[in-house]
Amino acid sequence: MSSEPISPQTTPATGMIRTLGLISTLCGLIIVAAYQGSFNAVQDNKRIALERAVFKVIPEATSIVEFLAPPSGPVVKAASAESPQQAGWVRFYAGYDNAGALRGIAAEGVAKGYADNVRILFSYDPARHEIPRFSVVSMRETPGIGDKILKDKAFIANFPLDAKLSADLKTLANAIRTVKNGSKANPWEIDAISGATITSRAVGKAINDAAQTLLPRIGESLDSIKEKP
Amino acid sequence: MTPMNARTWDEFMEGIWRQNPIFVMTLGMCPTLAVTVSAINALSMGLSTALVLIASCALISMMRNIVPKEVRIAVYIVIIATFVTVVDYAIQAISLSLYDALGAFIQLIVVNCIILGRAEAHAAKNPPLTAMINAAGMGIGFTIGLLSLGVVREILGSGTLFGLSLFGSDFQPWVVMVLPPGGFFVLGSWLLFFALLERRKQRKLAEAANV
Q1: What are phi and psi of A66, to 5 degrees?
Q2: Which of B14, B144, B150, B156 has a beta carbon 3.0–4.6 Å from B177's, enabling a disulfide?
């Protein structure tokens, strides 16, 4: 009787590498095919979603042109929705009516809410220096509590917000901020929803952070974008 | 029914009733509790998982004779991740709002134990058609389970079904139903219901055996 242990049969390394290589190649081809096949549809969906969001905050607009605002200097028209954005540049959307006149500017803002980031799109009226509307792009706030910012009439009545620039045109004259429910005293303040303070504060912070960065930059280039390019 | 058709039917029904992934095997609990806040989300997640399950099991079954056992888990994960990526792109192409609603849970289908479990336990040992039929049954069973939770949670927690209002604007929603604790309550209730059914069946079998 043999006393030698029977060694388990193992696959040679070359066999394993060959099989892994084959399967990786096949899976790679499947992924690339899926990406290519869905690319146009995904781009269309993103463009439609963006247009819907911008028209919601600038209802008088019938067409949109996308711009990029550099840290200094005039704004430039964005080449495409997916054109890579340089660091420090801010993307915004100009809404024009049928006559090609500028009816408002829309920009995104984001701030931490209760559950996750609250992404909003707000509009700016350059003629009146105010922020008339905002809408929510995405949020994961508690249903029935944080999501009141979408429908609460008193919260929506906070708008339009005053967004005048300071004398040196480098910042807003008054920072937009959310105050305790019932204590709004100025047109640049937002009355928080009682019981939904954190989400209300996120809206105020998102608008303020974005407006402080963008609005001073737009001031210089306003004449060049008043008519649709 | 011929023996072949009976066996095929058994393979298909295994995942829907006898080995339902949610109510019997209690697998895939993370998406089950997190995504079933509405019926449409539950249906979309269920169908996405089913598609990944069928495609992965088909490919794994086709490759079962050439995949060395030492690297089989790595191979299964690569194949499952590939089809999850395909479904991810497909959902973005169909509806961005649905994609936002399902969020990170689409990518988490890769680590759903139902899929890796079926690949190892069934697809790796059976021909492609059998594997696909069994995967289809499992996927439909998972979808039915998700829908059972999604429908109840949406009706009680939002007063709607598939977005359509059922009770009018005066309805006060039971908000906890669309929060995490509500998921546990509804799942527990369904498990209790099926346990009671099983106990009644066992009692009847015992009484029939004693007669």
Answers
A1: -95, 135
A2: B156
Check pLDDT > 90 for residue A50: no
CB of A70 closer than 8 Å to CB of A219:
no
* Matching residue, tokens 């009545």: A157
Alpha carbons within 13 A on the beta-carbon side of A49: 20
* pTM of the complete model: 0.77
Q: Which of A147-151, B54-58, B165-169, B177-181: highest mean pLDDT? A: B54-58
Give yes or no for A52 touching B (CB within 8 A): no
Tokens at B195, concatenated: 């346990």
Query: Is the CB of B68 less than 8 angstroms away from the CB of A143?
Result: no
Q: What residue in A sits closest to B76 (Cα-Cα)?
A: A23
User: A19 vs B71: CB contact, 8 Å cut-off?
Assistant: yes
Helices (H), chain B: 3-13, 29-35, 39-62, 72-94, 96-102, 113-121, 128-158, 180-210
Cβ–Cβ under 8 Å, residues A154 and A194: no
Contact between B74 and A143 using a beta-carbon 8 Å cutoff: no
